[in-house]
Design a protein that fits this description.
seven-stranded mixed sheet, Rossmann fold, 3 domains, binds cobalamin, pyruvate-formate lyase- activating enzyme, binds iron/sulfur cluster, six-stranded parallel sheet, single chain
Length: 512
């Protein structure tokens, strides 16, 4: 095949993350490069990047402009695809990634977009390029939906890559990886931000059925074996070569559940402990990691272990989210990690369909019991194709269907039992509420239960009071001063003090 010029676009507008790497895009780039294609990439975070990208396309005229998009980024594909057609009318435009995979109808709604790729894109994309290059009918390529004169041709999904080892290592150069792995630029708040960190992913797919997660929806698309692993040999080889090349000091393992397959786990981490032993961060799942595994994780250098707790309310966690986790097992697993000296991060969600403030208090309480080193929270988002995403559409709970950058930091739903401003309140104050509950403050005016509506309107006051109390000088006067400051707010309090000072000055005291 003749080499073609392909320009990839990684969309990351308004992201909460610093610039990062995508293993999926890197893998597509590596396969294209192996076939001799010339591959470049624009990393688009804002309007200025978008302008630079358009200028680049106008000047270099690539044969194909290929976007990668999750759901929240798709509005940017809608914005950029017509711009590409304006500056380089001959370019073929295509989009792959989770969003077009689970919401393929987006092709018909997007001007200037010629095709979408559903599912794994490495080999299907090569097939499409071959058809384009030979002038054949590309619209029949497996895994693609193609659009011409408003007509959409829908093709079935091609097979999954059965043996991940046949794929080259994901390409990092195309992403300017030197910059991405630089100290201070770590995607996870893993507590070691001043080191050079590298991201890896050795497995694909997850066998669990969580109703909020795209993984389950992706698995449903493919019959047969969906969960696959790279061989331990290849995984270790990739680690060694990237550690040498980029002088990595911390490893971020993005695999959904690194403890999923015991045999793979023991092989991999025994070799990791013996030959690499750099501190690493990884994801696990409660119920897949026993005492021996925890010991090996520690020996190998595990710095932070991430678990999805999602909700402390049993009904929400197991009936709505279908997480399938017993409360006792969660507590046991966190305690086990802490006993082995491994730090933990708990991932939680607020604003779930069926949730109420009262139910959410259980999440605060459970996190206080777990004492994770990092309690994290995101606002529920109804991702397309997921069980809960579909339920939200059916029940007309979605008030903001243009998914935007506020995803996970604001709610897209209108829930009957949980007002949007309360969801935001609990999201913004989660850490504080968990810490307070963990300090044993279970009663009194400022206990989390008290914050059930309408109390969140006092959130600012309560928070100021809490923070102030810690700094307050002991004794009843110190506390009263802080309580006053909390209730009045900084400005009014300062004014009151200056008036008091004036009065005292007039009376001959220094007024401190
Ligand atoms: C690692 C990871 C991250 C990392 C790295 C991001 C990345 N782009 O890889 C970090 C932590 C930075 C991250 C951030 C976010 N993530 Co994330 N992440 C994942 C995770 C766990 C693995 C992704 C992965 O590497 N998969 C394996 C690779 C091989 O698959 P892939 O990336 O989909 O790529 C393949 C195909 O999609 C396709 N393809 C992809 N692009 C293209 C382009 C073309 C042209 C073609 C032809 C094909 C193609 O071919 C690839 C190779 O086979 C997934 C869950 C999962 N298991 O998939 C969630 C997941 C993808 N993330 C998700 C979300 C929501 C986010 C955030 C939006 C969260 C937030 N609010 O900040 C951000 C968005 C960042 C961004 N700009 O895209 C959701 C997406 C749901 C959705 N429908 O949009 C997922 C599915 C998790 C979930 N909740 O269900 N994430
Ligand atoms: S939330 Fe975790 S365990 Fe559940 S399906 Fe998604 S990746 Fe698997």
């Amino acid at each position: 095949m003749c080499p073609m010029r392909i320009h990839l676009v990684y969309l990351d507008p308004f992201s909460i993350y610093p610039p990062h790497y995508s293993v999926g895009v890197g893998s597509v780039a590596a396969v294209l490069k192996r076939e001799g294609h010339e591959v470049s990439l624009s990393y688009v975070r804002n309007d200025r990047d978008a302008e630079d990208f358009c200028r680049f396309v106008e000047q270099t005229r690539p044969r194909v402009v290929a976007f990668s998009s999750m759901s929240s980024m798709f509005p940017w594909v809608k914005k950029l695809a017509p711009m590409v057609k304006r500056v380089a009318p001959g370019a073929f435009t295509v989009c792959g990634g989770v969003h077009p995979t689970l919401e393929p109808a987006c092709l018909g709604e997007t001007d200037g977009l010629d095709a979408i790729c559903r599912g794994e894109g490495e080999y299907p994309f090569l097939n499409l390029l071959e058809a384009l290059e030979k002038g054949q009918d590309h619209s029949r390529t497996e895994s693609f939906w193609c659009k011409a004169q408003g007509e959409v041709t829908r093709n079935p999904l091609g097979p999954l890559v059965a043996d991940l080892d046949e794929l080259p290592f994901p390409d990092r150069e195309v992403f300017d990886y030197e910059k991405i792995c630089a100290p201070g630029n770590s995607v996870r708040r893993c507590g070691i931000p001043d080191k050079r960190a590298g991201e890896f992913l050795f497995t694909r797919g997850c066998p669990f059925d969580c109703a909020f997660c795209s993984n389950r929806a992706l698995r449903d698309l493919y019959p047969g074996k969906y969960v696959r692993f790279r061989s331990v040999d290849k995984a270790i080889e990739e680690l060694h070569s990237m550690i040498d090349r980029y002088k990595l000091e911390v490893i971020l393992l993005h695999d959904d559940i690194i403890t999923l397959n015991k045999k793979w786990f023991y092989d991999f981490f025994t070799r990791y402990a013996n030959s690499i032993c750099l501190p690493f961060v990884c994801n696990s799942r409660v119920g897949t990691c026993d005492e021996d595994m925890m010991r090996l994780l520690k020996e190998a250098g595990c710095h932070l272990l991430v678990f999805g707790v999602e909700s402390g309310n049993d009904y929400i966690r197991n009936r709505v989210l279908k997480k399938g986790l017993a409360r006792e097992k969660i507590i046991e697993t966190f305690a086990l990690a802490h006993r082995h000296g491994i730090q933990t991060l708990s991932q939680n969600i607020v604003g779930i369909p069926g949730e109420t403030p009262r139910r959410f208090i259980d999440t605060i309480n459970l996190n206080a019991d777990l004492e994770p080193n990092i309690p994290c929270i995101g606002i529920f988002h109804p991702y397309p194709g997921t069980e809960l995403g579909k339920l939200c559409v059916e029940r007309k709970l979605i008030k903001n269907d243009e998914i935007s950058f506020v995803e996970r930091t604001d709610t897209a739903l209108e829930l009957p039992g949980f007002r949007a401003n309360h969801i935001r309140y609990y999201h913004d104050n989660f850490l504080h509420l968990v810490k307070r509950r963990a300090r044993g403050k279970t009663r009194g005016l400022f206990s989390p239960e008290r914050l059930i509506p309408p109390y969140p309107i006092f959130a600012g006051i309560i928070r100021r009071h809490e923070e102030g109390q810690r700094e307050a000088s002991p004794g009843p006067f110190g506390r009263t001063r802080w309580a006053l400051r909390a209730v009045l707010g900084e400005r009014l309090y300062a004014r009151l003090r200056s008036v008091r000072r004036k009065i005292l000055r007039n009376a001959g005291s220094d007024g401190t």
